Amino acid sequence: MSWYNTLGEHGDIVLSTRVRLARNLEDFPFPVRLDRDGKKQVCECVKAALSDYTETELDFIDMETLSRSDAVSLAEKHLISPEFAYDATGRALLQSDEEEVSIMLCEEDHIRIQVILPGLSQKEAFEKAEKIDKAIEEKLNYAFSEKLGYLTQCPTNLGTGMRASVMLHLPALVRKGAMRRLSATVAKLGLTLRGCYSEGVEAAGDVFLLSNQVTLGISEEAALQNLGSIAKQIIAEEKQARAVVISDSEFIDKIYRAKGILQSAYKLTSKELVGLTSLVLLGAEQKIIDVPMQELASLNILLM
Predict the structure, then answer these.
(1) Using CA atoms in the order 15, 19, 20, 25, what is the torsion angle rounded to 10 degrees?
(2) Sign of the C-alpha dihedral, residues 154, 66, 56, 25?
């Protein structure tokens, strides 16, 4: 069963947690300097390094063999980046059956290990990614500097090479007008809070990404602890805000109207769909309406 079909810890607010590790091989230029054959060679090296890895079963997918629609589907499920789906030349993907683990080969870096788990699970996601990371490093030499840490094509990833993020459903805080304040506050703590696939604090479906900004001069453990701590504070604020908004009869009416439109509408724009789904998901989370929350949460993730 795919990760997005399961509710995790704080699943009424936290849709998912993602940890991504960026790595490059010492013996090859960065992917931007590699031709197709060079990228293919990197892919084969990583494939061989993980051939006897047994912690997670990984399927090797040559991206050049996928149809455009299949590649776009992977991007829509957040398993690969849109750019990776657009240009398949020399690239490959290692993916688990449950779609928790996806490893992009020759995207911006040689290796992008990504683990996505439901709910607030930053430690578990990192541990799963770290096991794969160590398995590769046992067979291949990473580009590493004692001063700068893991060397990456983009300087903003130097150091740990780790990006960790939590996907949050925050409809009550949005209606309270609290997002700009929260975004400014977390920025002072080395994190960013932005709308999914949006600029700034505007968010489709009231879904936001809270992620670490600093990768140099901080350990993975400290970054993950900071992310989890701030996420829990935002969760607490969202719960307090929900207690206020669901006491408003006009807002409850909006939830029922959203449910009715989703059940009966013949045609909706994507913006309308994510907005209505957000309201119905909140109604399900607060037990105002009787609809399967897990299915709605999965839909909300796939719509992002």
Answers:
(1) -160
(2) negative
Instruction: Compute the distance between CA of residue 126 and CA of residue 41 in angstroms, rounded to an integer.
Output: 27
Other beta carbons within 10 Å of 297: 27
**Residue-wise pLDDT tens digits, 182-214:** 999 999 989 999 887 555 556 677 889 999 988
Which of 299, 194, 179 lies closest to 241 in space, CA to CA? 179
Amino acid at 259: K
Its pTM stands at 0.89
Q: Give residue-wise pLDDT tens across range 129-170.
A: 999 999 999 999 999 999 999 999 999 999 999 999 999 999
pLDDT at 285 over 90: no
Can you give the pLDDT at residue 109? 97
HEC profile of the chain:
CCHHHCCCCCCCCEEEEEEEEEECECCCCCHHHCCHHHHHHHHHHHHHHCCCCCCCCEEEEEHHHCCHHHHHHHHHCCCCCHHHHHCCCCCEEEEECCCCEEEEECCCCCEEEEEEEECCCHHHHHHHHHHHHHHHHCCCCECEECCCEECCCCHHHCECCEEEEEEEECHHHHHHCCHHHHHHHHHCCCEEEEECCCCCCCCHHHEEEEEECCCCCCCHHHHHHHHHHHHHHHHHHHHHHHHHHCCCHHHHHHHHHHHHHHHHCCCCCHHHHHHHHHHHHHHHHCCCCCCCHHHHHHHHHHHC
